[in-house]
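Instructor's aside before we start: the two examples that follow are unrelated to each other. I chose them only because their records fit on one page, so don't look for a connection. First example below.
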Amino acid sequence: MERVVTGIPGFDKIVGGGIPRRNVVLLAGGPGTGKSIFGQQYIYNGLMRGENAVLVVLEEHPVQVRISMSQFGWDITKFEEEGKLAVVDAFTAGIGEAAKRERYVVRAPDDFMTLVDVLREAIRDIHAVRAVVDSVTTLYITKPALARGIVLQLKKILSGMGCTSLLISQVSVTERGFGGPGVEHAADGIIRLDLDEMNGELKRSIIVWKMRGTAHSMRRHPFQITNMGIEIMAEQTITV
């Protein structure tokens, strides 16, 4: 089994050493659970290992994403300049001075096929082997019936082009699902991040619901967000 090491402390241990190569994994969770940080950490750790990557941003300005990542010490500018990282701007539609400096811009973010064309171009240009889409839910939030089809289409492209990918999926605070009808069947893996109140305190936890191609922990593990990113306590378990 060829695996992609995420480099996220504690995570690789609970999935048997890393994510099976070419898997497309749904990273689901409610607001404030750390989904974007997890995805960005996965991208940055890959770059540090010499693995080129594509980051698709649908909900935040690319400039803000770079600032957010730099706060964890993840400076991605040099990797973009060296052609090792492509940030796909599917947020601004090319509007604004900063957006004009972006190389990969989806001019019609609500047109899925336009995004697919730009994504393909970015992966091909830099020979990416890691990809993160933040968030895939944005693509079908007003058309939930399309959720499974969109995830399957992304899976076909990303896996077919050799990427091991995270699709970030939003759920509401009370929802225990994965962010869209049928998406759990379309993805190769599902990671769920949660933020639950326990004895008057919010606790973060992670559980791997499925991961095709490998054995994985069936327990829920606590994690924390530090100034260096996400750290999972693989040796500990938590009951919600």
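Example two begins here.
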Amino acid sequence: MDLWFKEIHNGSFGLLIKVRRSLYHGESQYQKLDIVETEDMGRMMLLDGLVMFTERDEFVYHEMIAHVPLTVHPNPGNVLVIGGGDGGTVREIARHPQVTRIDLVEIDELVVDKAKEFFPTVSCELDNPKVTVHYKDGIEFVKKSKDKYDVIIVDSTDPIGPAVGLFSHEFYQDCFNALQKDGILTAQTESPFFDVELIKKIYANLQQAFPLFRMYLAPVPTYPGGYWSFAFASKKYRPILDLNKERAETISRSTKFYNPQIHVSGFSLPNFVKKIFS
């Protein structure tokens, strides 16, 4: 019997992945969580029926959301991750010896527990002594943090359910306040093919909070359209001119996707994406 997972985006576009078997199904007070083993993409985590990541392509997303800010900031000692309970972003941050503390704020303890159980290569740094996991609402956590972090990474789900507030102007302003005077924020900002109006709102909100902001892109095959956008927002540093190429080269010895050339090219936007901001 053939088993297939189907995800429909915006009611008109779909993703179809062949599934070998279901490994876990459960529900927390926040969301439903499923883990399945697929034919070609390895194990896959779903939240409320939407793909969060697969073993085969997760490295692209996690490397790009983490290494871009960490190779630009000259001394990223104190890093905050909001969301990302699977541990992939934390894994990439832990590659940087300059980082001395990583605070991971994940609202749903079930995500962390099952990531550790079923995705050891993704969650492998969650028990690193540099890492402190806070099972709290990221929005409220940031409100209580002032001038504390060098880098904030918003590794959120889509803007539905508990993640809606992670795309608001108020949240970005609280992130600005939680960053030190030369801090950097990165965040995932959805599909440039299918979420144009949402992206316009996100970047309008960012513009109200940060003096410097840019979009960058990377291919993620199992996300809608296979092409994903990220925001780089900063109080001071520019994502290309202030790139530490030596550090980026060093990191790229252990990455699968990220390198200094990819870092720079990610900020070269195609014309259809430039029109979003015109």
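The two ends are 50 Å apart (CA to CA).
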